[in-house]
Amino acid sequence: MQIVSTIAAARETRARLDGTLGFVPTMGFLHEGHLSLVRRAQEECDAVAVSIFVNPTQFAPDEDLNRYPRALERDLSLLREAGVSLVFTPDAGEIYPPGFDTSIDVGEVSRPLEGAFRPGHFSGVATVVAKLFNIIQPTKAFFGQKDAQQCAVISKLVTDLNIPVEVVVCDIVRNEKGLALSSRNSYLSKSEQERALLLHDSLGKAEGHIAAGERNASTIRALIGDILSKDADFCVDYISVADPHTLTELENIDDEALISLAVRVGATRLIDNVVVRKK
Ligand code: AMP
Q1: Which of these is catalytic: 31, 34, 121, 200?
Q2: How far apart are CA 222 and CA 236, in angstroms?
C-alpha cells in the first residue's frame, strides 16, 4: 500500500496502477460504513485508492472542524488489511495553496436540506471532490447513501461537468440496533446513542405506512415529527419527503421517495434516510 501526501506523488503512484481504479473519498476515522465502500470498490475494480482529508471548506465556521475525530494510524492499518493500493492523505495547504480561488456551485440540488442548514457545505464538497477526481483519475467513485444529498450533488457535478467517472452509491451500514454508522457517533454519550435510535425507528415506521398504502407526503412528515418529538431534547432541523434525484419536496409518493431527516442530539448533528420505491 502506497501512502502519499503530495499531489505529485499521488499522480505518479496512480499512473503505475494498471486496469480500472475504484476511489473512495473519506474524512478518515474509518468505520464499517467506509470499509463497505472499499470492499464494493474492490469487487468492481482492479485496484482501489482511498483519500483521507478533513476538508476545511465544507465546514461552516461554527461547525466541528477542529474537533472532528482523527485516527490516521488506525485508518491506515485498516486500509492496509483491506488490501487498498493507494492512500492519499494531503494536508490543507496541499489542496488549497495560497491564492486558491475557485469553487463549484452545483445549483438547485445543493440548496435545500443540508444545503439550507449548512451554507457553503456542498460547494466545499463539490470543489474538493472535483479536485480529488482530477488528481486520482478513478474509473469509478464510491459514495454512501448515508449522505443521500451528497450523492445527488456529486452525480449532478459529474454529469454537468462531463467528468469521466462513474458514481456508485452504496447502501447505509448500521450498527446492530439500527443506528447509521458515522464518525460523528463518537461524540455521542451512551444514553445519546440509545436515544438516537429513534431516527431509524421513525424512518422504519414511515416506510411501514407507505407500504400499507399511505401516499400523502405531509402525513409521512407529520408521523416522523410526532415520533421524534417524543424526545424533548431532540432539535429537528428538517424532515423531508423528496424526489431522490432533484431533492424537490413531494406532495404525493408515487414512484420513489427519499425520506430524510437531520436532528441535533445534544451537541451532535445526525442525519439518516431511507429510499422507498413503489413495488
Ligand atoms: P465521511 O468520511 O463521513 O466523509 O464519509 C466518506 C464516505 O463514506 C461518504 O461517501 C459517506 O457517505 C460514506 N459513509 C459514511 N457513513 C456511512 C455508512 N454508515 N454507510 C455507508 N456509507 C457511509
Answers
A1: 34
A2: 12
Q: Could you read off the pLDDT of 167-193 as tens digits, one per residue?
A: 999 999 999 999 999 999 999 999 999
Determine which residue's CA is closest to atom 10 belonging to ligand 1.
143
Cα of 146 vs centre of ligand 1, distance in Å, is 6
Nearest CA to ligand 1 atom 17: 33
The string over 190-227, giving b where at least 16 C-beta atoms fall within 10 Å of a residue's C-beta and e elsewhere, is: eebbebbebbbbbbeebeebbeeeeeebeebbebbeeb
Strand segments, DSSP code E, in the chain are: 2-4, 21-26, 47-52, 86-88, 140-144, 166-170, 234-242, 256-265, 268-277
Is 34 in the active site?
yes
Pull the grid cell for residue 188. 455521542
CB 87 within 8 A of CB 49: yes
CB 137, CB 14: distance < 8 Å? yes
- How far apart are the CA of 64 and the centre of ligand 1, in A? 17
Rounded distance between C-alpha atoms, residue 227 and residue 202, angstroms:
6
**pTM of model > 0.90:** yes
Question: Which residues on adjacent β-strands are paired with residue 242?
Answer: 249, 258
Q: How many angstroms separate the Cα of 203 from the Cα of each of 37, 105, 221?
A: 23, 30, 10
Backbone angles phi, psi at 251, to 5 degrees: -90, -45
